[in-house]
Structures are given as structure tokens and as C-alpha cells.
Amino acid sequence: MIKVHLGDITRLNVDVIVNAANARLLGGGGVDGAIHRAAGPGLLDACRNIGGCPVGEVRATSAFSIPVKRIYHTVGPVWRGGRLGEPELLSSCYRHCLALARRESMRSIAFPAISCGVYDYPPSLAVEIAVEQVQQHLEKDGEPQSIIFCCFDAEMAELYHAQLDAYVRR
């Protein structure tokens, strides 16, 4: 089941929240900053111990003060026109997170709009990739059972709703 939620990802009742992190995993603005603030200082220490994450990959930590089981930190690509592998790297973020959730037997996961903030990925293109990767994963593996696209504004939520409707009509 796929849902779209408008609100704060740190307040969702899921097993895993995905952090749209930077490569150093040391916090930042947007979703990354909100997750670090909500989790508390233990998250920063855990991320320092990991030592970073390459673009398109995922690293996992406990959730500290956030009432979920895990935080998956993934680093999306910076948009540079789409000819430097950005679509493949963004797809990889979703694939790696979903595969890890399945391996860890997580039943629910919430994604932010990866790369759509300061990384300037065009929202409509990013949403198309997100929905396609999630749908393909569910068709193949069926787990996790619940996937939420958590949006920071109504405009982004509408993009997800429209793309999910378009995918179903294929």
C-alpha cells in the first residue's frame, strides 16, 4: 500500500524513516536537519561513526528519540541537468532503501522527496522516479507492505498523487 502524507516525517508511525542526507551524514537543512533535531545528539554521533555515504547508497542508524525502529540515510544526487547520471543515482537511493527494509524485515517506510530541496532536482522528474521505483519494488517483492511519500507542502503531495494515478492507469 502506498500513501501520500503531508506533514512532518519524524512524527509518522512507521518502522523506518528515510533521511535525505548529505554525503557526510552530519546534518544540514530541510528534512536532514529536522530528523537530526528530532532524534537528538546521539544521531550525530552515530553518523560520525559511519563516516559518510556515497550518492545513491544508504546507511542505517537507530532512531534515538524518534519513535521508529530505524533511520535510513540516503544521499540523492545534485541536479546538474540530468546528463550526469542523476536519474540512475536517484533510482538507486530508492532501490537501496527498499532492499534494506526488506532484508531487515521492516513492514513500513516513509520517504521524503529526495534531492528536491537544495539539491535542485526537478520535483516532477524526482516524483516520477520515486513512484516508479516503489511500484516496481512492490510488484517484485511485496515488502515493505506500507510505503509513505511524506511531503513538505501540498504542491509536492499533489505531484505524488498525480504520478501514482498515472502509474495505475498504465
Automatic annotation (TrEMBL):
Protein keywords: Hydrolase
EC code(s) of this entry: 3.1.1.106
SMART domains, A to Z: A1pp
Pfam families on file: Macro
GO molecular-function term, one example from the UniProt record: O-acetyl-ADP-ribose deacetylase activity
First-level EC class: hydrolase
NCBIfam families reported for this sequence: PRK00431.1-6
Name of protein: O-acetyl-ADP-ribose deacetylase
Organism: Microbulbifer epialgicus
